[in-house]
Model the fold of this input.
Amino acid sequence: MQANQNLALPAGYQLQGYEIRKLLSAGGFSFVYIARDLENQSTVAIKEYLPNTLALRQEGVQVKIPSEEASTGFRFGLKCFFEEGRALANIEHKNIVRVLNFFRANDTVYMVMHYERGKSLQEHILSQDTAMAEIIIRRVFGELLNGLREVHTQKLLHLDIKPANIYIRLDGSPVLLDFGSARQALTNTPSTLPPSYTPGFAAPEQYGERKHLGPWSDVYSIGASMYACLMQSAPLAADIRLKKDLLPPAARIGKGVYSSHLLRLIDSCMALDHLERPQSLFALQKVLMEEQPNPAKAGWLHQFKAMFK
Amino acid sequence: MKFTIHQSSRRGGRRYNQDRLAYSYSKHALLMVVADGMGGYSHGEMAAQLAVKTLTAAFQQMAAPSLLDPDHFLRMQIQKIHEAIHHLAKQKSLEEIPKTTIVASIVQDDTLYCAHVGDSRLYHIRQRQLLYRTEDHSIIQMMLKQGLVKAQDMSKHPDRNKIYNCLGGETPPTIDISKPRALHQGDIILLCSDGLWGHLSDERIVDILNNGMSINQNIPGLIDTAERRGGDSSDNISAAGMQWGSSLEDALTISTLHMPLENANTIMSPITGQAASPDAHALADLTEDDIDRAIAEIQVAINRSKR
Done:
């Protein structure tokens, strides 16, 4: 989590047709609030563009841009915020967060999103004493890939997939959030927007020149997120792995608990050479959804149950 | 490591803001620093900027995930800043050597380490009680110790702003290292320049910081109050406040639990002289019309996919 040196909007503040309830999170480029839609009394999440490296609101609600330099930085980030809005507005999918509105106020811009009740995958990982069960990992990621495939179909890459951005609804279905890094990188025009990534989950090609970005970059992040489910912590950052790869393979750390089939898949997703990874989400999803034999060492209860089948 | 932090700086009635502040944190250590470039001297902000940059850069390099010896780190790095200021003055052939105060603290293993030179201060507050405050290296503080002035007359004394110890001076600085202090959940650490404490008594500072709101609200509150009291002639006012632990559950609380071992983040203010790359300038040519058009496009897309 990053700090934000700006002041958040106060609870009770009325923002167009919405009333701010509370601050939900503070990220590198924005605040996210829980708010009430006054028109239909529903709960929404509102993302407010406010980059944390620029001190733009130290009091009140209005965003003030103090200098020419800050203005450059502000507008620069604004472009990225619009990219995110555009990306999401074009997608309507069960596993992708839904954008409901987009508007200007207080000299900045706001994105209203459907509010999902549940917990992030990160919270799930941390709230458990033991690593996540294989069947859950397969189901969550298998379903999430339905949404991500839709993103890739729109010629977009997410580029910031990580457990904190994967939300698990109360019914167990996953939703992919935060498209702040999404780029139209599947087109031929190279993106010159600034890189943004999370160490541990970003693919090696996201560092440096970023020439080799592709669907395989999101595949790496999916692999790293699955890896985090079994390790219960973020994997070693890819730029460090490039210098000296000290990442213990999933096949080693998950041995006996998970099927070697899943562990091999995770390791292949996290290959440093992007050509060695599953080349499309479809290929990855197919392997994930395959019916699997029981884990190598089934517990006694499992064996007991099997006797009565 | 969990904490809530806020820093802010205001120019006050002066033409320039010569105060600089920053914090930097790694998985297991937190650095906070305030430097007050010397008003009477030219290029005061250069010295303050150099101080903050040197310290945070060294921290980023050496503190991920933690420092071996925080006191030693502070002493060595602050000494380096003094030398770097002299070097810079020579390099740019400045007539006068720029000067700055510094107060820096490190929190690691629930322990607070602090070093200072000059009259920028650190306050350690626990449950509405001021447990500790650094002692200014000022003429007036020395006079108080010698019994030449009474405590109640200090705030009006003509020499109240004169300091005898700083970075960049002719004589090497005396780096004052405080004794390491245990930090408890909920403790508040405040670092500030004299623009803040000059207009607020210690009691008032403790009161404002304990009014039940979070540090994110109270630091701007403190600065507001100091600015009002200072009026048009107010000095630069800077303050950085940190509440340790997560007693106040706040979305702005920083947790370093999931930070990679090899990382450190630094936040500096005010943002100055950070020249954007030419690339960024070219990209940032977003006019008001462009913004409105982008929003309209997104609106259309939302409505289209709603059907």
Summary: Chain B touches chain A at residues 5-8, 23, 216-217, 220, 224, 251-252, 254-255, 258, 260, 262-263, 265, 267, 269-271, 274-276, 279-281, 283-286, 291-292, 294-295, 297-299, 301-302, 305-306 (CB under 8 Å). The domain at 2-277 of chain B is CATH 3.60.40.10 (Phosphatase 2c; domain 1). The first helix of chain B runs from residue 44 to 62. The mean pLDDT of chain B is 86.
